[in-house]
Specification:
By secondary structure, the protein is of the alpha/beta class. It has a domain of about 140 residues: P-loop containing nucleotide triphosphate hydrolases (Rossmann fold, 3-Layer(aba) Sandwich), CATH 3.40.50. It has ten helices and twelve strands. The strands form two sheets. An eight-stranded mixed sheet has the order 6-7-8-3-9-10-12-11, with helices on both faces. Helix 4 packs across helix 5. The longest helix is centred in the middle third of the chain and has 18 residues. The structure holds adenosine-5'-diphosphate, iron/sulfur cluster and magnesium ion. Iron/sulfur cluster binds next to loops.
Amino acid sequence: MTEALKLTDLAKSFPVGRGFLGGARGAVKAVHPITLSVRKGETLGIVGESGCGKSTLARMLVGLLKPTSGTIEIEGEAFATADPAAFGRRIQYVFQDPISSLNPRKTIRQIMEAPLKRLHNMPAEARKERIAEIFDSVNLREEFLDRYPHEFSGGQAQRIGIARALAASARILILDEPVSALDVSVQAQVLNLLADLRAAFDLTYLFISHDLAVVEAVSDRIAVLYFGSVVELGPAEEVFATPRHPYTRLLADSAPVVGRPLAAPEAAGTDLPDPLNPPPGCAFAGRCPHATDRCRSEVPRLEPIGDHARVACFHPLPA
Ligand SMILES: Nc1ncnc2c1ncn2[C@@H]1O[C@H](COP(=O)(O)OP(=O)(O)O)[C@@H](O)[C@H]1O
Ligand code: SF4
Ligand SMILES: [Mg+2]
């Protein structure tokens, strides 16, 4: 098995507030230690509610944010510090909001050229060729290159965002809610394009979304994130069909319908714990119908269950 990405105990806390002498008053643990591998050519879906740490995880993986602890290995090479240029040759980020993620004062050609100059020192003629090739692969016309981001629709702008990520020649893409801002009909086009590109360029994807149906459709495996921790990990066709973690069950019960945002049923309450003052045991205990005393005092670890899955729960649901 070739691993594209290997995270070991990767964690991030943000110091917050100012205490009496100017020191931090506390820390938000946005990502608790995560250990996870992504196989070459795989799409790993990451689902979780708003605020569960998806973007913080993504930003560490592209070198925009320095981890508090833990290690990142990309294609077998360890990356110790946050360095967007070093990461950028291997792994690229595709943002949720395509238009605002593109610099409004630059033409699309200038936007596309930046990574080729910065990451690869590519001469002008080679850049031109490379950009034409990439534009063709995302089904965009070359004449678009001399326009500005605001002249494009959301779907076209997201193709440009994907093209920019591909221009860097990275083989791993972090797709952070890549279709959430698009109309449902356009979503399907962009998802099909991503599938074609993955096959054509042998890409590996981390596909982050709060939309269960989309994640289920595009992923090989799915990791369910709750309050900064992976609580369940397994094959895409099993995770929501036979959830083993009570939180995954809750998500699955909120009916995966295309385009429907991830929302927990009212009765279960929708509050995440206070990140400045996390509970001592399982973070889901306050919402869990199966919680016991042990759950309220001890943190469950992600352990293998069944043939392919892993779950962080003292009382996993039957398969
Ligand atoms: N720069 C920051 N400073 C303090 N807290 C932050 C910062 N960025 C994110 N957080 C907190 O970390 C948690 C996870 O945020 P985020 O990764 O953006 O979640 P998601 O992308 O899943 O919505 C949230 O509680 C958020 O408020
Ligand atoms: S560890 Fe306990 S509280 Fe947490 S999800 Fe499992 S049963 Fe529920
Ligand atoms: Mg986010």
